[in-house]
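Input/output pair, single chain:
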Amino acid sequence: MTLDPATIKILYIEDDPNSRRLVQRVLESEGYQVSLAEDGMSGLEMARRLHPDLILTDINIGGMTGNEVATRLKEQKETRGTPIIALTAATLATDRERALVAGCDGYITKPIDVDALPTLIAKFLSGKREKVDDTIKMQRLEEYSQALVTRLETTVAQLEKANADLRRMDKMKKDFVVLAGHELRTPTTLIYGYTNLLRMEMQQLQLGEHVDDVINRISTATQRLNEVVDAIINVSLIDSAQLDLTLVPVDLHSIVQAVMQEQQSSARQRDLKLETRDLSYLPPIKADANYLRRALSNLVSNSIKYTPDGGRISLDAEQEHGAIHIIISDTGIGIDRAEQEHIFDKFYVLEDTATHSTSHNAFMGGGLGLGLTVVYGIIQAHGGRIWVESEGQDMNRLPGSRFHLLLPIDPGPAHTPTNT
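Output:
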């Protein structure tokens, strides 16, 4: 049967760009469809996706060797019956035998004979297969198995060393962040305190609105800096499982009222309505009041950021099967479905950083991308769950977002948050 080259897909795995270009030109000139992979891992992925009719692979490629790639390809159901041909500069008989034992069906040596290559490819496509004598096969198979074990041991040792180095560096980073945060918190606390004292003095001296406005701006900026430092410290504590919660019965209604009062000034600047109802009927829950308040405050602040002026943010809660289900809804721009699984990741920001605003109260204003990460860690530490629902992002239709928190009334001991 004569094969039509135009219907044949060939995958070539090779880390040398010159070899890739040469083989691609030769085979495409014969009418074949040729796809290229630069290493073994990408070759495996492309083979699963493309279902090629024939696979060419160099043996001495970076990462996974060609022999290892052939072994893996023969294990995958998508490529189990696909002919795999080694195209390599390794010319020893033992190299050929080892490749055939590993899973290759043929062996072509370099330098490539551009005249002979199309004929050889056509033969392998038509069913040609190379074999190894059974006695030699057992010997080469044992050598190949031993080589795989040795390579695995070396790789594991390298990974363990790299992992230990990463853990050490990560601990150094986290320790530095916490220490730097505490060092920054001391002067900012002093600035904030002395600014308030100065404000009281100025009120007595009646120096005018301009001086009072300057003091207010210093106070606001210092408070904002404190919030940033707190967020960085909290993320570091969450990452290192050192978030220290004091779980005691707390009144959720009082916390919600405090959060809404705290966010009222920001909402008023943007003509936004903050709505909640009387939640005093809910039972007390065991929680860390300060951290829970921070989590709810971050969520309301986030809704304020992504809700256009004149919109509405509401907070509601119900008791459900030994837990409190809190929902924070807004009439904002919504969240794209593809983004929803990432919004709790560290440093993840939805807005374009090129249009970043330093005001976290402004519509789509700036931030470090840590607010929702802190919320996620706090809720997990309470043994709870958090997720988001949104139909998508639309600046005109404004579908809004709904953040759901499920907090157990009695979570037991504080949980260790998992990294996002």
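Confidence is low (pLDDT under 50) at residues 352-358. The longest helix spans residues 134-205.
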